[in-house]
Each structure stands twice: as C-alpha cells, then as structure tokens.
Amino acid sequence: MEKRWIYKQEPNKEIVDKLSQQLNINEYLGKILVQRGIDTFDLAKDFFRPSLSRLHDPFLMLNMDRAVNRLTEAVFNKEKILIYGDYDVDGTTSVSLMYLFLKQFTDNLEFYIPDRYSEGYGISKKGIDHAIENEVRLIIALDCGVRAIDRAQQAKDAGIDLIICDHHLPGDDLPDAYALLDPKQLNCKYPFKELSGCGVGFKLLEGFCQQNTIEKEKLFDFLDLVAVSIASDIVPIVDENRILAFYGLKKLNQAPSAGLKSLIEISGKKNEFSVSDVVFSIGPRINAAGRLTHAKESVNLLIGDAEETGAFADNLNDRNKERREFDQTITSEALEMIASFEEERKSTVLFKGDWHKGVIGIVASRCIEHYHRPTIILTESKGMATGSARSVDGFDVHQAISECADLLEQFGGHTHAAGLTLPLNNVEKFIDRFEQVVSERILPEQLIPKVEIDTEIPLSYINFKTYNVMSQMAPFGPQNMSPIFGTKNVIVDTTPKVIKDKHIKGFLHAQNSTKLFEFIGFGMADKLEQIKTGVPFHIAYHLEENNYMGNKSLILNLKDVRFDA
Fold first, then answer.
1. Full-prediction pTM beyond 0.85?
2. What is the DSSP string of 216-264?
C-alpha cells in the first residue's frame, strides 16, 4: 500500500545550533529535541535525566486530601476495603498495585474485577452488591467510575464510602462519591492530565505515604506495574509518565515483581524490555484472561508470590495462545470478506454471529493494516449485534457512529476507538448509513497511511554516537516516538535476501559513498524488483541496535521506500 511521507516542521535553526553545541550532539539530534519541545539546556537535562524527585505533589489533585484521609482512617481502623478495577491491563495493574502496597499495612483487603461479558465495563451493580454482602466499608475504584452515577448512589445508599481513581473524561454530571480523583475533571489544578488509571492510583498511594511519613521507596518498589499500565494504555510518555515509565522499566528489567518476572520468562525475550515490548509481549498476556475467561486470573498472577506465579503465568500464556488463534482465524475470515466486496468503500463494517467478542477490537486493527479505512467488526451477543470500532489517523470514528445513533442501542468511546451495540435487524441499515457518513466526511489523504519523518539525515551521521544519544530519549511512546529518519538516494549493494517470502534483508550505501549499512524491511519483499535495479531510491527508517552473540551493530529498520523525488 502506497504511503504518504510527511516531514515534521523544521524548527528554528539558531535554537537547534545552540542546543546542539551545549549538548555536544549533531544538528539532526538537536532538531529532533527542539521539535519535541526540548529547546533549552535545562529542559534537555530534565529530559535525559528523569528524577522521581520531580514527580508532582499528589495533593495538587482535587479531592486528594479527602481521599488520603479516608484511606488512612480505613487502614488504621482495620475496616474492610474492596479494591475494584477494570478488566484490562490498566485496571488489573491498578488493582495489583493498590493490593500489594496496602497489604503491608492491613489484612482487611479484597479485590473485585467485573466480568467482561456478564457485567461489562466499569463499576457494576453486581460489584456493589458483592461489597454490601461482604460488609465492605470502603471501595477504591481504579481506572473506572467517573461516569458511574447510579453505582456511586447505590454505594452511598448502602453506607459504603467510594473513592474513585479514574483518568477518563468525565460527563456533565459527576458521581456522588466520597472522593473523586481524576485530573481531567473541571477545577482540578493537577499539572499533568494524562496519567494512566494505575498512575492515578499511584498518586493516591503517594499521598498516603506523604501523610503517614512512609518511605516512598516502599511504593517505588511497584513501579514496574505502573510502567506496564502506561505502556499498555497508550498514554503520552511525557512529563510525569516519562519519569514513572523510565524507573518502572528499570525495575521491570532489573528486579521485577514475581508475577511480571514469570511473564517475562514465559515470553522468552532475553534483551531488556522497552515500552513496545511491554505492549506486544506482556500486555496481551495479561489481557488474555479478561478477553477469554476472567481477568481475576491476571490479578492473581500479579499479586502472587514466586511459588504461585509459574502456574498462573502458564495459564495466562495458554489463554494468550488461544486468543491469538481466535484473532488469526477471525482476521483471515474478515480479510476474505473485504476482498469479496464488489464496490470500493471508504469504511469497513463486518458482521458474523460466531466471532469471539473478546478479540474483535484486535481484528478491526488488523483489517486497517491491510485496508486503511475506519473499521467496525460486529458479532452476536445476548441476541444483539455488538462490536468494536477502530479508526485511521485524523478521522473521528466516535462522531461518525453518533450520527447513526437512532439505529443503535448504545455506544461509547473516543476519536480512534469505540464500542457499540445494536439490534440484529439494524445491522444492514447501519452498514449503509455508516458508509454514507464516512464517505461524506473522510478526506482522501486520511485513507492513505502516513509515515511521519522527524528529519532527513545523511548516512554519514548514522553511527554509534548518534544511536547512543537517540536511545537516551527512550522510553518511546505517544508524543515521544522513536525517531524516524529519512535518507535520499541510496543504492543496494547486492541483491537482498528474501526471508519467509515476506521480508528483505541486505546492505545499502549512499549514492556518493561505498560505506555499507545493514537494513531490514519487514513485509517489503514486493519492493525487491525495484530496489535491486541499482537505481537510487529513498528510505524512511528507525535506527536500531543488532546484538548477535555479544556483537553489536547498527541496522536500519525500513518503514517505507520510495522511488520518486
């Protein structure tokens, strides 16, 4: 599929030159820093040397004093506390963090994860009923609750205090909870708005430490869980999230908690884990239980001791293999259905009654990799069609779905992803209406995937010094992505190897030089005929380190190639 190359805006040259000199780095790295808002020596120092001492004061968050006071009272009076969390990675890591930390101070703890299929997202009636039956005095809800108006009232009517730690956007009305912590609520002066759900729970515990003069190192011991939540929930890795992810990954790689250690071992990965590795290796294994059975399995793993975790990890690994099989089978069926469409469409909406509800969001994303357009995958559940939507960059899929609201039972989500439920007899009407809405709204360029290039760079600057400085910009993730470099007019040295009929690997050099650079192009076997002709072409790539049996070399991981000017 042809891609659009977009070059980031050139920053002010004087600022770039000054910063590059101060940091003793080349102008191309200086340019990347300035593009990311790091345009002074002091900002660069903070960026390259994250410090836990620069975390924001938790008491800047609206209602934090009230929440900390109530938690302190419950712990010291040995009241029964229920820790309630969502069934995804952010929710299960939040519950595990809260449970493991508070377990050091009280035995009166229990956790509750709703069932994805019978209870759905957020605080459920069944969850509050469980708290009432078990004489719980305080519920701490994590990664959910900011829109739980009815459930907050149910808890209050039963005499149960509810502390909500959420990071989602509140609605017009707020739940009547004992304390609501959410940096996105109006009048909250907390300086950083993009914490994960686990991050908000972490701030509550940080406040608890401050108030009760508990060494914060006791809390920092659990930063590996916070890093997994930040990576898996795809929140921006800037400001406080960068600090928490930096130290959390360090903990994950050097001394992970027993549960995460067992997942690392089962993944078989030997090198250090990055944010991306967490997203693709640890996150799916934690998520698999919530998608296929029950997410309490994930919490049992994450809070278990070393003796227990092996069996739990094997179980989650089996669930993840099962999930992958569903994912692959359904994806191939979906791609066959799209290929059979007679007319060209601007959207994809597919329905098949026996597709597994737990993987349809993943399948929607896979379809977009092949057909770059807003996609909704629907299956049947409880006599209704239910589905997941994913979008392409810049197109608001939630807004498009809302224009079909009269055909729907319910829907929710945000710009890039949404969920929806509708009567089975409305599916065909919905497919036509959604296609009509998308066709009228979507811009032609939004249907073409883009490669965003940070800076053009001559191959002569590709060396270990450049790589070492660039690698210190990690952890990479939203709003701080691993840089993509562009280089024009390169030539392959000899015919590249084709690997598994899909990938190419070989050596290339600049048009005016003989110095060779190794490259790999995943999924680029179809480009082979063009690049082996000896005609110069242009590349967009990540710079990566190849470590084979202790021998380190640099490799260009191609994101795209093009042959025009």
1. yes
2. THHHHTTHHHHHHHHHHTT---SHHHHHHHHHHHHHHHHS--HHHHHHH
